[in-house]
Each structure stands twice: as C-alpha cells, then as structure tokens.
Design goal:
- The protein has 150 residues and is an alpha+beta fold.
- The protein is built from five helices and four strands.
- It has a single domain, classed as Gcn5-related N-acetyltransferase (GNAT) (Aminopeptidase).
- It is 45% helix and 13% strand.
- Helix 1 packs across helix 3.
- The radius of gyration is 16 Å and the shape is globular.
C-alpha cells in the first residue's frame, strides 16, 4: 500500500476540499437527520463547508491528500466561529426537528473549548477509505500543532 501524501490546500482548492467533505459526510447519521432530503443536504452542507473553511484557509490549516481523496479543516485556538453564518440553512431543517437541532448546536457550542485546536471537519472519499488517508491527515496536522507549541 502506498503511503498517502498530505499537502496543505490553498483557497484555490476550495471546491475540491468541499467536494470530498460532502462525499465523506453524505451518509453521516446526524447531518442526514438534520437534512434528510438529499438536495437540501447538498445545498446546506455546501454552505457549511464554505463557512467553516474560511477560518481554516485564512490560517493556512487545511490539509488534504494530494489527489483530494480526503481533507481536514482546522481552527486555531482563540478563533470563534460565527454560527449566524449557518442560519440561512435552518429553513431546510424539517419543522418537527428544528427545535431539537438548534438545542443540539447550542449544547455543542457550550462545550467547545476556546483555548484548543479544533478539528472542524475531516472526511475521506468513501471510495478511497481504508488506505490510511484519514490517519495521515491527522498525523500531519498534529505534527504542525506540536511544532507551534499547541
């Protein structure tokens, strides 16, 4: 088995990064409960990846396998994500689920540490899994964090 080559992605790679993250989360139980309709999931997750990737690209901490078979988005300590950016997607959450979904996001935010590195998203194309890509994505990022004294 070849060792995956991990690279830092740049903002010009945004669509490729978003694409593999969408593939990786297309069958995620929580996100598909929030957005059970396939077209709504694709539309909303695209918005989520656009917003979550901004901080990662601004801080040069988007790691990808060289063919974009996997990617990860990291946020550095002390950076706060603006949840209001996701509000336009809430209209696509089924009405019988919106209250629970909002409570979940509020609880999730309550326990989000502000003084630690945050792995916002990591995913590998399902067709490319079991090749060590996810492990190498994590290894590369953790090495960078250690070098920065994190």
């Amino acid at each position: 088995m070849d060792i995956p080559k991990i690279v830092k992605a740049s903002s010009k790679d945004l669509e490729r990064v978003k694409g593999v993250l969408k593939l990786g989360f297309a069958s995620d139980a929580l996100l598909r409960w929030v957005f059970p309709d396939a077209s709504s999931f694709l539309k909303c997750f695209d918005i989520w990846m656009e917003e979550f990737s901004k901080i990662a690209f601004e801080n040069n901490i988007v790691y990808s396998e060289e063919n974009f078979y996997g990617s990860s988005l990291w946020h550095p300590p002390g950076v706060e994500f603006d949840n209001l950016a996701l509000e336009p997607t809430f209209e696509y959450i089924p009405s019988d689920r919106i209250e629970v979904a909002v409570k979940f996001f509020e609880e999730f935010e309550k326990y989000h540490p502000e003084d630690a590195w945050y792995l916002a998203f990591i995913a590998v194309d399902p067709a490319q899994q079991r090749k060590g890509i996810g492990s190498f994505l994590l290894k590369e990022a953790l090495q960078m964090i250690d070098e920065r004294g994190g």
